[in-house]
Amino acid sequence: MIINKSLSMHKNEDSIRFRNRISRSVLKNRSLIPPLIDEIRKNDAVLFKLRNSIDV
């Protein structure tokens, strides 16, 4: 019983640490996100044009 309790506590600590690490990296990389979204939009527009030209 005691072992199980300590294991679950350890797991929680690990997941909290992991979450903190993820949020830190997201904050660091937030400036990269808008350019990425722009790239995706551009690619979508190109794909859309291609699809339309194929349909004709």
Tags for this model:
56 residues; mainly alpha; elongated
Fold and architecture overview:
The structure is a single chain. The chain has 56 residues and is mainly α. It has one domain. 91% of the residues lie in helices and 0% in strands. The chain is built from 2 helices and no strands. The protein has helices spanning 2-29, 33-55. The relative contact order is 0.06.
Supply the helix-strand structural class. mainly alpha
Radius of gyration: 22 Å
Secondary structure tally, helices: 2
* Oligomeric state: single chain
Q: What sequence of helices (H) and strands (E) makes up the elements? A: HH
Shape verdict: elongated
The number of E-state strands comes to 0
Overall number of domains? 1
Strand content: under 5%
Helicity, in percent? over 70%
Mean pLDDT, as a whole number? 76
Q: Termini, distance in Å?
A: 69 Å
Largest sheet: none
* Uncertain runs: none
Quick synopsis:
With 56 residues, this protein is mainly α. The protein is built from two helices and no strands.
Helix-strand blueprint:
Layout lengths: L1 H28 L3 H23 L1
